[in-house]
C-alpha cells in the first residue's frame, strides 16, 4: 500500500523548496549584478521579489507543519520534512542577502562610480552559486551532497573575502572618496561569505536526510 | 565554515586552508549491556507443524523495565513470537521450536520449567478484553488464590493494590461485586491488566491491547504502560506505528517470520538501517 495522498504532499513541498531555491539564487545573482552595473531598475526588480520569497517561506512551513500534524511521517520522510524547515530558513537568508545588496544599489550615491571593477565579488558569487547548484542537485536527486568540492569552494569564498577586505583597505587609505564604495564591497563580501556558510549547513542537513548520519563540515 | 548560522565570523584566514574532510556523527545505537537484558531470544525457529515454519533465526534482546514493541505486517510472526515468551504456543498441537529464550538467565524451554508457573512470571494481556464471567473483585483475586495462600485481609489488600496499579481502583471501588462484563471496554482491559499484575509478574506481554479501544481508553492504557515499566518488562505487539513510537523504548520489525531490524525506537523511526523497515514504517507496503 502506497500512501498516494501523502506522497503527493511530499512532492508538492519538494517542488516548493525547489522553487524557493531558484528564487533565492536568482535574487542573490541579480542583486549582485545590479550593484556591479549600478543598475537601479534591476535592483528594484530584486527588491520586489522579497514578498514572494517571504510568502514561499510561510507557505512551505505551513505545508510541512500540516503534514507533520496529519500524516505523522517517519524515517526518511520525517528527515526530509525536518530538513525542509531548515532549508527554507537558509534559502530565505540567501535571498535576503540578494535583497540587501539590491537595496545597496538603490541607495548608491548618485554619480559615484566604482573604485575599480569589483572582480573578486563576482568571483565569490560564482563560487557560492556553484555551491548552491551542488546542494540543490543533491536535494533533487535525494542524495547526499559531495562534501569535498563544497569545502574547497567554501575555502575559496573565505579566502576571497579576505582579498576583498585587504583591497578595500588599500582603496580607503588612498582616497577618502573610496570609503563609501569600499565599505559596500566589504559588506557584500561578508554577505557572500555567509551565503557560503548557509549552503554548507544545507549540505549537512541533506546528508542527514539521505543517510541518517549527522555530518559536520569542517 | 562557521558551524553556526549566527553572526560569528566563520571565514578562514588566508593561507590556512582546511583539509576537505568532514566529521560524521554516527547514529549507530549502542548495544545493550548484558546486565540490562531481561529477555534474550537466541536463534529461535518456530514451526506450527512439520512444514509450516513461522519464525526463522530470531535473535532479540528485550531490556529490563523497558517497553519493547514488535511491529510488522499481518502474518509476519509477531504474535507468534510474543506467545513463545510464555509458551502459549504449546497449547496448539503440532507446534515445535528450536533455539533458546532466556528470562533473567533461565531458559524458558528448560525441562525443569513448569509452563503454568512460568505464566505467573510472564503475564499476558490480549487484543480483546477477556474478563472472567465473575465479579470485578474475583477477576483479580482468582489468580492470587491459585498461586498463593493469603488471608482475606491480605487478598483484599492485594486486589486493591493491583486495581490501583492498573489505574482502575477509583472507578470500581464501589462496585467490586458487580459483574466485570458490565464495565466499559477500556475498564475491562485495565481489569485484565490488574489481573495479570496481581501475581507480580516479571514480564507483561501485550498483544495489540488497544486495538478494540477508543482513543481515550487507549491513552489510559498507554499512560499505564509507561508507569508499569518501572516494575515490569513489557513486550507489546502493535499494528499502530504511532503507538509503538509513543510508548516503546525499543522496536523490533519482523517480516515474513524474520527479524529484519531491532533497535532504539527513536532510531528505528528516525533513521532505520534497513530499507524494508523504512518501507514498512513509511507506509510504502504492508
Describe this structure in words.
- The complex is a heterodimer of chains A (218) and B (286).
- Chain A has 218 residues and is mainly alpha-helical.
- Chain A has a single domain, classed as Phosphate transport system protein phou homolog 2, domain 2 (Methane Monooxygenase Hydroxylase, Chain G, domain 1, Up-down Bundle).
- Chain A is built from 7 helices and 1 strand, in the order αααααααβ.
- The longest helix of chain A has 34 residues.
- Chain A is elongated, with a radius of gyration of 19 Å.
- Chain B is an alpha/beta fold and 286 residues long.
- Chain B has a single domain, classed as P-loop containing nucleotide triphosphate hydrolases (Rossmann fold, 3-Layer(aba) Sandwich), CATH 3.40.50.300.
- Chain B contains 10 helices and 11 strands.
- A 6-stranded mixed sheet of chain B has the order 7-8-9-4-10-11, with helices on both faces.
- In chain B, helix 6 runs parallel beside helix 7.
- The longest helix of chain B is centred in the middle third of the chain and has 14 residues.
- At the A-B interface, helix 4, helix 6, helix 7 and strand 1 of A face strand 1, helix 8 and helix 10 of B.
Task: List its traits.
heterodimer, A: 218 residues, mainly alpha, Methane Monooxygenase Hydroxylase, Chain G, domain 1, elongated, B: 286 residues, alpha/beta, Rossmann fold, 6-stranded mixed beta sheet, 4-stranded antiparallel beta sheet, 10 helices, globular, disordered N terminus
Amino acid at each position: 500500500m502506497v500512501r498516494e495522498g501523502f506522497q503527493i504532499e511530499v512532492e508538492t513541498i519538494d517542488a516548493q523548496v525547489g522553487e524557493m531555491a531558484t528564487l533565492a539564487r536568482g535574487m542573490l545573482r541579480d542583486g549582485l549584478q545590479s550593484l556591479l552595473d549600478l543598475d537601479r531598475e534591476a535592483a528594484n526588480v530584486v527588491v520586489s521579489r522579497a514578498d514572494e520569497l517571504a510568502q514561499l517561506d510561510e507557505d512551505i512551513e505551513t505545508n510541512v507543519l500540516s503534514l507533520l500534524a496529519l500524516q505523522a511521517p517517519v524515517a526518511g520522510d520525517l528527515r526530509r520534512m525536518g530538513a525542509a524547515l531548515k532549508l527554507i530558513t537558509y534559502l530565505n537568508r540567501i535571498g535576503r542577502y540578494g535583497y540587501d545588496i539590491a537595496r545597496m544599489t538603490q541607495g548608491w550615491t548618485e554619480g559615484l562610480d566604482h573604485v575599480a571593477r569589483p572582480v573578486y565579488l563576482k568571483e565569490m558569487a560564482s563560487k557560492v552559486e556553484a555551491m548552491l547548484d551542488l546542494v540543490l542537485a543533491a536535494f533533487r536527486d535525494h542524495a547526499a551532497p559531495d562534501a569535498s568540492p563544497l569545502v574547497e569552494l567554501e575555502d575559496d569564498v573565505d579566502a576571497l573575502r579576505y582579498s576583498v577586505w585587504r583591497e578595500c583597505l588599500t582603496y580607503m587609505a588612498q582616497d577618502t572618496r573610496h570609503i563609501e564604495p569600499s565599505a559596500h564591497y566589504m559588506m557584500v563580501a561578508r554577505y557572500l561569505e555567509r551565503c557560503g556558510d548557509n549552503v554548507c549547513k544545507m549540505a549537512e542537513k541533506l546528508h542527514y536526510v539521505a543517510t541518517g548520519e549527522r555530518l559536520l563540515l569542517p | 565554515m562557521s558551524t553556526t548560522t549566527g553572526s560569528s565570523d566563520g571565514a578562514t584566514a588566508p593561507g590556512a586552508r582546511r583539509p576537505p574532510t568532514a566529521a560524521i556523527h554516527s547514529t549507530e545505537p549502542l548495544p545493550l549491556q548484558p546486565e540490562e537484558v531481561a529477555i534474550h531470544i537466541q536463534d529461535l525457529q518456530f514451526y506450527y507443524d512439520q512444514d509450516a515454519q513461522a519464525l526463522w533465526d530470531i535473535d532479540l534482546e528485550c531490556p529490563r523495565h523497558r517497553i519493547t514493541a514488535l511491529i510488522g505486517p499481518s502474518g509476519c510472526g509477531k504474535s507468534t513470537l510474543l506467545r513463545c515468551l510464555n509458551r502459549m504456543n504449546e497449547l496448539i498441537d503440532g507446534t515445535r521450536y528450536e533455539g533458546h529464550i532466556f528470562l533473567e538467565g533461565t531458559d524458558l524451554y528448560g525441562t525443569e520449567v513448569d509452563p503454568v508457573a512460568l505464566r505467573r512470571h510472564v503475564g499476558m494481556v490480549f487484543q480483546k478484553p477477556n474478563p472472567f464471567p465473575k465479579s470485578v473483585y474475583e477477576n483479580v483475586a482468582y489468580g492470587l488464590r491459585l498461586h498463593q495462600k493469603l488471608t482475606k485481609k491480605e487478598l483484599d489488600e492485594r486486589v486493591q493494590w493491583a486495581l490501583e496499579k492498573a489505574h482502575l481502583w477509583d472507578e470500581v471501588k464501589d462496585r467490586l461485586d458487580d459483574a466485570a462484563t458490565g464495565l466499559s471496554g477500556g475498564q475491562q482491559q485495565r481489569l485484565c491488566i490488574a489481573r495479570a499484575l496481581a501475581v507480580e509478574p516479571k514480564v507483561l506481554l501485550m498483544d495489540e491491547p488497544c486495538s478494540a479501544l477508543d482513543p481515550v481508553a487507549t491513552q489510559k492504557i498507554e499512560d499505564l504502560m509507561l508507569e508499569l515499566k518501572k516494575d515490569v518488562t513489557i513486550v507489546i505487539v502493535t499494528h499502530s506505528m504511532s503507538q509503538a513510537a509513543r510508548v516503546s523504548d525499543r522496536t523490533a520489525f519482523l517480516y515474513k517470520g524474520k527479524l529484519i531490524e531491532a533497535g532504539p525506537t527513536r532510531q528505528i523511526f528516525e533513521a532505520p538501517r534497513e530499507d524494508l523497515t523504512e518501507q514498512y514504517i513509511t507506509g510504502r507496503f504492508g
